[in-house]
Write a structure and sequence with these properties.
Layout (H helix, E strand, L loop, with lengths): L1 E2 L6 H11 L12 H14 L7 E2 L2 H5 L3 H10 L1
Parallel strand pairs: 1-2
Helix pairs in contact: 1-2
């Protein structure tokens, strides 16, 4: 389960997911968001993840961040 932060961005969501999947460089400032997104996709595939549950998903609406979720969904 992924907890969505109140002020969610594509980067913070990807970093949170990477962290929960055990990526030791999840919060590295040196990696661009696209690189982190590719690592996330690889981890999801490698671990055989079929379902992702977003806790506090109302934060996508509250922070006017529908584009964040759309961007992530279409990437995966």
């Amino acid at each position: 389960m992924v907890e969505v932060p109140f002020k969610v961005t594509v980067r913070t969501l990807i970093e949170g997911m990477l962290h929960q999947l055990g990526d030791q460089f999840a919060h590295s400032m040196n990696s661009p968001t696209d690189v982190k997104k590719q690592r996330l996709i690889k981890l999801i595939k490698d671990k055989g993840i079929k379902l992702i549950i977003f806790d506090e998903s109302q934060h996508f609406i509250a922070s006017n961040s529908k584009g964040v979720l759309d961007s992530l969904i279409y990437s995966l």
